[in-house]
Amino acid sequence: MANTPKTMAERIAELRERRARLEAGGGAARHDKQHESGKLTARERLDLLLDPGTMEEIGLFAEHRTTMFGMDKAVMPADGVVTGTGHVLGRPIHFASQDFSVAGGSAGEMHNTKVSKAQHAALENGTPFVCINDSGGARVQEGVDSLSGYGKVFYQNVMLSGVCPQVSIIMGPCAGGAVYSPALTDFIIQTNAARMFITGPDVIKQVTGEVVSGEDLGGPMAHMVRSGVTHFVAENDEQALLIAKKLLSFLPSNNTEDPPFVPGHDIVEPDESLNDIIPDDPKKAYDVRDVIVKLADAGDFLEVQAGYAMNIVIGFGRIAGNVVGFIANQCNQMSGVLDINASDKSARFVRFCNAFNIPLVTLVDVPGFMPGTQQEYGGIIRHGAKLLFAYSAATVPKITVVLRKAYGGAYIAMCSKDLGADRVYAWPSAEIAVMGAEGAAGVVFRKEIAAAEDPAAKRQELIDLYRNAFSTPYVSAARGYVDDVIEPAETRHYIARALEVLLTKRDMRPAKKHGLIPL
To answer: What angle, rounded to 10 degrees, do the helices at 42-49 and 237-250 form?
Structure first.
């Protein structure tokens, strides 16, 4: 007797049951364990990231095809990763969210294939790609198929690079080869519960004899302060997702679009407080972020890599509604010198902004490049050259404001007129010279000082002479290296007016595949 065909109602009931089972991931017990460790589940994270009712999951019914090592009996809902599309603040994105409740979020062939498909869909549709990482690493039972899957993901990371913004959110373990996908993305947000490293503490102890904790090796402070891998640190999953949404609010969906414009922030009155923000004593420090928040609309500034290479400040803000990338020397940290880490940090940020049509506002107060054998042996020459390369290659509007010191090669590296700055403004406190007056006087007037009856008094006299002659903005303005010397209170007005003109800028460059940035 033939089987009676299922009715549509029965088939729909079966579909609903299957969906419910798969959407439950690893089940209530494992979800509870996730909560006990201070983490949300993969789908809870997406509920917070995406606008309500906009999520479309793609690949829910995906299954692995491995039969070895007991995998023929292993049930892994959605193969341990949720992928699809949704909206963040009204704009579409593509996403992947690893499910630690399913086999520890281990990444096998189908898992990685789903991620790479989501990446490719982002590329085809011109949307940002957000990946939430929470995985024990490669699925060992799948062997080389798992490694091949990682390769597919890395390849799509590179295809997306410079086309669509990529954000990685590390919310749990991320080890071994898995770390290279976040490293290939534009921004990494890491929670306090997350750990990220190539080789874990146990392997390091076995191979090198070093003893280190997981937190010291791969915790957020290790990667924010020491390695510079992490761009933002979050207390928990909820804060990480808020940072991601804030970050995306400054970014265009792809490299063919302009960043989101927010109206309602016209320039009305000069900000007189800027006239007093620079100390009269040129050796006295201040916090350049105080300048930035006075220039940015509503004081809204999202600092990037705040704990790394703190002698330079980078981040996003808006001026008169237009998104800009700020790069500023921080004179209260190492006097604001450019060292290896500051050069790398700022060069990478300049290149990101250039790729995504974000104008650059550079605030200069730099005494030079960092001297010393450690810097020289570490390659300050090639690292400093990255910043020169990045600014010179950038075709977006480039506006430079010299606040105080601008000495030597560091003056050039901080987007001088000769590196293609479209506007260079200087405050009356600006000192633009080959070096500081003290050092210059010792070189230029060495003989006069040595022959004087009172060398100390003569030296101070000649220092004042040099400073009055060269360490002012007016000599540079006379030669066209500075477009205008402006009152600090009017800086926001000048930048806004320049942006209004420069947003239609077209900068033609020689035809080539790409330049070769010093590495």
So the answer is: 40
The count of residues in the chain is 519
Q: Where do runs of H (alpha helix) occur along 89-192?
A: 109-125, 144-160, 180-184
Its pTM stands at 0.94
Eight-state DSSP code of residue 301: E
Cα 286 to Cα 374: distance, rounded to the nearest angstrom:
27
Which of 159, 191, 186 shows the shortest CA–CA distance to 252? 186
Q: How far apart are CA 129 and CA 166, in angstroms?
A: 5
Q: What is the pLDDT of residues 190-243, one digit of tens each?
A: 999 999 999 889 889 999 999 999 999 999 999 999 999 999 999 999 999 999
CB atoms within 10 A of CB 73: 6
Task: Name which of 246, 299, 248, 250 is nearest 271 in CA terms.
Answer: 299
CA dist 111 and 343 (Å) reads 37
The confidence score (pLDDT) of residue 68 equals 67
- The Cα–Cα gap between 393 and 351 comes to 8
303 burial level (CB within 10 Å; 0-12, 13-18, 19+): middle
3-class DSSP assignment, residue 417: helix
Give SS3 for 264.
coil
Strand 195-197 to 431-433 pairing? unpaired
Catalytically active residues are 176-177, 409-410
